[in-house]
Design brief:
By secondary structure, the chain is α/β, with parallel strands linked by helices. Helices cover about 55% and strands about 15% of the residues. An 8-stranded mixed barrel has the order 9-10-12-13-14-15-16-17, surrounded by 5 helices.
Length: about 575
């Protein structure tokens, strides 16, 4: 902009210099002629009559007038000559401002007209390209939905200037990436089209839907009086995807979470509201698949806390602030089957931090990979040491994060750890969650094949809390199945969890899978679980998680008691909070 104005100023100065030069040349010529004439007349003064002098002066005046007229005509011609150039410069300046409708109209049929026509053509081409770019960014090419980010200003200027309440709902398909890995990109594309169509079909007349990211859609609910309307709409939307969708001969399960913020109570502009939606979405993910959450101020404090945890966690790994505890696993023959290794963190800043908080944080930041490798090595060393002390083959059971398990170098790292620690692979059990099965890949099959090849055990953790189908129990050769604590807690409750547990045990045994009951805290829970043929027990009824030295002492004391009396001694009373 500044450059164009400078060029126009230089152009005008050049034009004025030309005109001024013509005037100065004329004036100088007249002045010279006058001086020469007066010198010549002075010499001939005696011989010339007075009338001749007057006539000569008139002649000089006519010449001067003629030259002035010529100068004025030249000035006009110069203006006419420079005017098209001025128009071209002005047009280019407008194009730089983004006004692509400008057109130069020149009557001359010369080089300047050629330049003007070229500028017009350039303006039209730029206009077409700008429109194409706008359409690319304004609409999602896959779903055809408006792009939320490019529509933000429009939403601010129109919807948010009204007095209506508006709910921003950020909808996330959180297993889209794994669907792409296991079923292919074509399935993902058709899924997103199907997803957008289903949501579009169920929205109200005043509601709006936008594409936000490859796996996110924004749904705007407008003009509601109470949050019940929002909850009804969101629940209806989630119900659309309760069942798998048929796409290209696949049954595709869609895992949704929704974060919600409200205009104007949570914010008065798009940027603020979508940020708070994202915060609420984090809470919804924590609550489980198919859950939604409304934003509130406590969520922001929670996010800030987690951010601080993330920063501290990187230091914790570096400064060796993490440590392991070991919870005994007791079999139905009153023997110690083994121990589950549980990671703990005592932060100098926050004190003891719940594994539920920092493990999830580590998975998001991928710190879980170095942490997981450290846990594997430390737990294997502990197993080897217990074997040396007591000459018994205790199984060490270790939780493996899906993030760590699906790393391409997982098998290589595990092989190195087994070699370095000299653990017998038959004494190693890796616990995986149901989520890994749903988001499984070809590489997971390689990992499972390798574990069975070396004799290591595979345990399915927290069975019954997720979406895993019973089909997975037939497809994957699990050695152990761990019944989640929530079922154990409900054994004597009204929901008939005891019948569910009995069915799970019967099914597992028919597939030659051992059953581990987690969270056993009461003597009568233990008695019932033993009665229905549970294989292994774990919980505070037998022992809290122990340090390595405490675990070694536990083993020492356990085997000093007669086998028939061990349960009475080590599980003599109900665990109290």
């Amino acid at each position: 902009m500044k450059s164009t104005k400078t060029n126009k100023k230089i152009f005008r100065i050049s034009q004025n210099i030309v005109v001024t030069t013509i005037f100065l040349d004329a004036f100088f010529l007249i002045l010279v002629m006058a001086v020469l004439a007066f010198i010549y007349m002075d010499r001939l003064e005696a011989d010339l009559p007075f009338g001749i002098e007057i006539l000569f002066l008139v002649f000089l005046g006519v010449i001067a007038l003629f030259m002035v007229v010529v100068a004025l005509i030249l000035t006009k011609k110069i203006d006419e000559l420079f005017a098209p150039i001025d128009d071209i410069v002005s047009a280019i300046e407008e194009i730089k401002k983004g006004n692509y409708d400008i057109q130069i109209s020149l009557q001359e049929n010369n080089e300047l007209k050629v330049i003007g026509d070229a500028v017009n053509q350039m303006s039209q081409e730029i206009s077409k390209q700008v429109q194409l770019v706008y359409e690319c960014f304004a609409f999602d090419s896959l779903t055809g939905l408006k792009n939320f980010k490019t529509s933000a200003q429009e939403i601010d200027d129109t919807l948010f200037k009204q007095n209506d309440k508006i709910a921003l709902c950020l909808i996330e398909i959180n297993n889209l990436k794994s669907i792409g890995v296991t079923k292919g990109q074509m399935v993902v594309e058709e899924l997103m089209q199907n997803f957008a169509d289903k949501i579009s079909a169920c929205i109200g007349n005043n509601d709006h839907i936008y594409s936000h990211s490859p796996n996110e859609i924004v749904f705007l609910i407008q003009g509601f009086r109470s949050l019940e309307r929002v909850e009804t709409s969101v629940t209806k939307l989630l119900d659309l995807f309760n069942s798998p969708i048929d796409i290209k001969n696949f049954k595709v399960e869609v895992h949704l979470n929704i974060g919600i913020s409200i205009y104007p109570s949570d914010g008065k502009d798009v940027a603020t509201l979508i940020k708070k939606c994202d915060t609420a979405l984090f809470k919804a993910r924590e609550s489980g698949l198919g859950k939604y959450a409304f934003y509130n101020e406590q969520l922001t404090r929670d996010v800030n806390y987690r951010q601080q945890i993330s920063e501290q966690l990187a230091l914790a790994v570096k400064n060796q602030q993490l440590y392991l505890k070991y919870q005994p696993l007791i079999d139905n023959k009153n023997e110690i089957y083994g121990f589950e290794a549980l990671v703990r963190w005592k932060s100098p800043t926050f004190g003891e931090i719940s594994p539920q908080v920092f493990v999830a944080n580590a998975e998001e930041s991928h710190l879980i990979v170095p942490i997981g490798n450290w846990i594997l090595r430390e737990a294997c060393q502990a197993q080897v040491e217990l074997k040396k002390r007591f000459d018994k083959q205790f199984v060490i059971s270790i939780n493996v994060s899906p993030v760590q398990l699906l790393q391409k170098d997982f098998i290589l790292n595990l092989r190195d750890i087994i070699r370095e620690t000299e653990i017998d692979p038959n004494c190693l059990a890796l616990e995986i969650t149901e989520g890994v099965l749903i988001d499984s890949s070809i590489y997971l099959e390689e990992v499972i094949d390798y574990l069975h090849k070396i004799g290591a055990k595979i345990a399915l953790d927290d069975f019954g809390t997720g979406y895993a189908s019973l089909t997975y129990l037939k497809q994957i050769p699990f050695d152990n199945l761990k019944i989640d604590k929530t079922f154990v807690d409900g054994i004597f409750g009204p929901k008939k969890d005891h019948a569910i547990i009995a069915m799970i045990i019967q099914l597992a045994h028919s597939l030659d899978i051992k059953v581990v009951a987690e969270g056993v805290e009461k003597r009568r829970q233990y008695e019932y679980l033993k009665q229905i043929a549970t294989d292994i027990f774990q919980g505070y009824l037998f022992s809290k998680p122990l340090t390595f030295d405490e675990a070694a002492h536990y083993v020492d004391q356990f085997y000093k008691v007669a086998k028939s009396k061990r349960i009475d001694v080590f599980a003599g009373s109900d665990f109290q909070e």
